[in-house]
Design a protein that fits this description.
The complex is a heterodimer of chains A (315) and B (405).
Chain A (H helix, E strand, L loop, with lengths): L2 H5 L1 H9 L15 H27 L15 H8 L2 H31 L5 H7 L2 H4 L2 H11 L6 H8 L13 H29 L3 H9 L4 H29 L3 H6 L11 H11 L3 H33 L1
Helix pairs in contact in A: 3-15, 5-10, 5-12, 10-12, 12-15, 14-15
Chain B lengths: L1 H21 L1 E8 L5 H16 L3 E8 L1 H13 L6 E5 L3 H6 L10 H5 L3 H4 L3 E2 L2 E2 L2 E6 L2 E5 H6 L11 H14 L13 H13 L16 H13 L12 H9 L5 E4 L12 E4 L13 E9 L6 H11 L2 H11 L8 H9 L3 H6 L5 E2 L6 H17 L4 H16 L2
Parallel strand pairs in B: 1-2, 1-3, 10-11
Antiparallel strand pairs in B: 3-10, 4-5, 6-10, 7-8, 7-9
Helix pairs in contact in B: 2-13, 9-16, 10-16, 10-17, 16-17
The chains are: A mainly alpha (315), B alpha/beta (405).
Chain lengths: 315, 405
């Protein structure tokens, strides 16, 4: 009897059952030790993840404020949809979609350039890092000055090249303020995406490119038929992570516009903060937080389903 | 030998712990960095109070302006309040309504030591909920050089709304500067700016009977004034709060703007004048918004009585005057020291003499929501998205709901 058979009596049983029905499998012993080791981590997860979540759900059914709280049923959920919450949700998704799409596009382009055998490649790889390394608040304050109409670089350059007649305040108008927050978010988020995809590109075997080159495949063809399909799982992964971070991004918008002007950059997270923290309406804020959770869960669920299907297809 | 040392050390440690336990701690949350002259004055006063009250240890935690208020309120809501906190007086109604702060018992003499308009910023429901700690009034800064360049003959600056409008238009049309700087960002001083002009036009947000009167003719007239000024404002006023207007004034990009007394320190080389905020066509004359920050005592710290005593000690007439001077604030009380201040620096006169004519921030429980509603009305008339009547009507309805809470 081989060691494999000895250690897996149950798996061997079906093959031998007909020939030797009298053989009785030994009672299976449960090894509790691994579970014991998991207890601290499970407790920690319960305390720092599960309990706040449960508490948020509970609060969302109350009118909790500085005055105390009482149960109000689904009133908070009804009220937020009577306000302009649907508009804020749509704006949040547009903000996220624009931000993530641009980050992925810029990230792929950046990764390709960083992966190319160009002179000074190491320096470029270092130069791409600052937006990611610089503390977000400092980077965003820098952008807020660049958007300033009177003293900012963008308005100044645009005037110098004759694109605009006079100073233009990017953060004073709804559309330009919205786009300005997206641009800043893309600036902050692109380096991580580029480096993540660069790592994925570098894991592609060079033999594939050599074989394609031998067959006469051009650069773009090699990129489309080799690089892109092989980094697709990484693109999906980084897109999901980026979507979650972008959806929950608070500091960029808060520092640049605080959700203004006239609510044009108010996303769900900004709205939740204003309600729960600035106005101390904890119950209403909790209902908004639950809505964020629902959106992200749905988004992550769709992504996981997509991934599962593509893995099945691959098999 | 070692054992003896260990026993002595343990005994000393236990002794000091007992001593520490006998001392009660009064925690103060203060806004700012704690590195200015006012903080030094306060620390010296605290030490004087501790010397006279040996059972107490006072600790001061300085929290940046943007977070200090939220921090103090969040701690109180979580049942772990600081004993004393520095607060914008605008939130006192919310805190009092929530039972989080304790009212002060003031003697008649103590109450009379304040100008009634100043006391009104911390007083409602017949009680005083905080003692004013920092105080500001506003005035109109005007650039003399730009006025001259635009051919304006206003030696004392604009004295009426017509003057303001004439000057703003002339400067915009005849110089490279904007006529006036108006803050209209998503920030409290957008509402504050409007209230300056509103009070100067005899307007109110909530009348003496507690009724919301935002759609009154005086208020609509003030909104119309804002709309009429819009073409002469800095480019994109919705991107500016007051602090961001300071560099524009310093660089000669705007010819007028309102600011507090501290604005005199940030004018650079500009030859400027300071005028009272001119009265509007329906007003009784110049006016200003009165803003106070206060020291409040939270319920539940266990040292409320001592905290009350300490706050009264710190805000005593003489100590407060010294604190005002250290911080460069408008003096809270009219005293010999404030007279001396005006004599030594006449530019204080406009800020101090405006006190009796001024009005407080409107008081509702949800102050931030009120601010958002009023800001929206102001922004809408400046951008032309609504007429003054439409903006006032919409704000009126929303403010009525907030006032009813």
């Amino acid at each position: 009897m081989s060691p494999v058979e000895t250690s897996h009596p149950a798996s061997a049983a079906p093959a031998t059952a007909a020939a030797a029905p009298a053989v009785v499998a030994a009672p299976r012993r449960i090894d509790w030790f691994p579970y014991l080791l998991l207890i601290p981590a499970a407790l920690l997860t319960l305390v720092i993840v599960a309990w706040p979540l449960i508490e948020t759900f509970r609060l969302s059914f109350t009118d909790a404020s500085l005055r105390g709280e009482s149960y109000v049923g689904a009133e908070n959920y009804v009220e937020i949809f009577e306000d302009d919450f649907a508009e804020i949700m749509i704006r949040t998704f547009i903000w996220m979609f624009l931000g993530v799409t641009l980050k992925i596009v810029m990230g792929v382009i950046g990764a390709v350039l960083l992966n190319a055998a160009l002179p000074g490649r190491a320096i470029f790889r270092i130069l791409v890092m600052p937006p990611w390394i610089v503390p977000i608040a400092i980077g965003v304050f820098m952008w807020s000055w660049m958007y300033n109409g009177q003293f900012g670089m963008i308005s100044g350059l645009a005037q110098r090249f004759g694109l605009i007649d006079g100073p233009f305040e990017f953060l004073a108008y709804g559309t330009s303020a919205f786009l300005a927050t997206v641009v800043t978010d893309v600036w902050v988020g692109t380096p991580l995406v580029a480096l993540y995809l660069l790592a994925a590109m570098q894991s592609i075997p060079t033999e594939l490119y050599e074989a394609a080159w031998t067959d006469g495949a051009g650069r773009f063809y090699r990129f489309r038929r080799i690089t892109l399909p092989l980094i697709a799982p990484s693109i999906f992964t980084v897109a999901l992570l980026s979507a979650i971070w972008t959806f929950n991004s608070f500091d960029i918008i808060w520092i640049l516009t605080e959700g203004g002007p006239r609510g044009s950059t108010t996303t769900m997270i900004i709205d939740t903060y204003k309600t729960a923290i600035s106005r101390f309406r904890f119950g209403e804020g909790a209902a908004r937080a639950v809505m964020i959770l629902v959106c992200l869960t749905a988004f992550a669920g769709a992504y996981l389903a997509l991934m599962a299907r593509s893995q099945r297809d691959a098999r | 030998m070692k054992l003896t040392h260990l026993m002595i050390a343990s005994t000393a440690l236990a002794g000091s712990a007992t001593l520490a336990a006998a001392q009660e701690t009064i925690d103060i949350i203060n806004c700012g960095a704690g590195d200015d002259a006012a903080a030094e004055v306060q620390q010296a006063d605290i030490e004087e109070w501790m010397a006279a009250n040996e059972g107490y240890e006072v600790t001061v935690e300085y929290v940046p302006w943007g977070q200090c208020q939220e921090r103090a309120i969040t701690l109180a809501a979580a049942g772990d309040p600081a004993a004393i906190s520095y607060m914008g007086s605008r939130v006192l109604k919310q805190l009092a309504g929530s039972g989080l702060i304790r009212p002060f018992d003031l003697t008649e003499e103590e109450a009379n030591s304040y100008e009634s308009s100043v006391l009104s910023t911390v007083q409602f429901d017949g009680q005083v909920w905080g003692l004013p700690r920092a105080f500001s009034t506003k005035a109109l800064y005007w650039n003399k050089g730009l006025f001259e360049e635009a051919g304006l003959d206003m030696p004392d600056g604009p004295q009426s709304w017509d003057d303001v409008m004439t000057a703003a238009q002339a400067i915009t049309e005849n110089t490279d500067a904007a006529g006036i700087g108006i803050p209209a960002a998503e920030f409290d001083n957008t509402m504050h700016e409007f209230l300056n002009w509103l009070y100067a036009n005899g307007g109110e947000v909530i009348d003496a009977d507690g009724n919301v009167v935002f759609d009154s003719p005086n208020n609509i007239e003030t909104l119309q004034f804002m709309a009429d000024l819009a073409p002469y404002m800095e480019e994109g006023p919705l991107a500016y709060d007051r602090a961001e207007l300071e560099p524009l004034f310093r660089e000669g990009q705007i010819a007028m703007y309102t600011n507090g007394g501290w604005g005199r320190a940030v004018t650079g080389d500009v030859d400027y004048g300071i005028a009272p905020i001119p009265g509007g066509p329906s007003g009784d004359g110049p006016s200003t918004l009165l803003i106070t920050d206060s020291l409040v005592v939270f319920e539940g710290s266990g040292v409320e009585e001592a905290a009350m005593d300490l706050v009264k000690f710190l805000t005593d007439t003489e100590r407060q005057a010294e604190f005002d001077e250290g911080g460069g604030w408008t003096p809270i009380r009219a005293t010999a020291r404030s007279d001396e201040l005006m004599a030594n620096d006449p530019s204080w006169t406009v800020f101090i003499e405006a006190v009796p004519t001024g009005g407080p921030e409107p008081s509702v429980v949800d102050y931030v929501a009120m601010q958002d509603v009023m800001n929206a009305a102001i922004q809408d008339v400046i951008t032309g998205d609504a007429t003054p009547e439409e903006a006032a009507a919409e704000a009126q309805a929303e403010l009525e709901e907030l006032a009813a809470e």
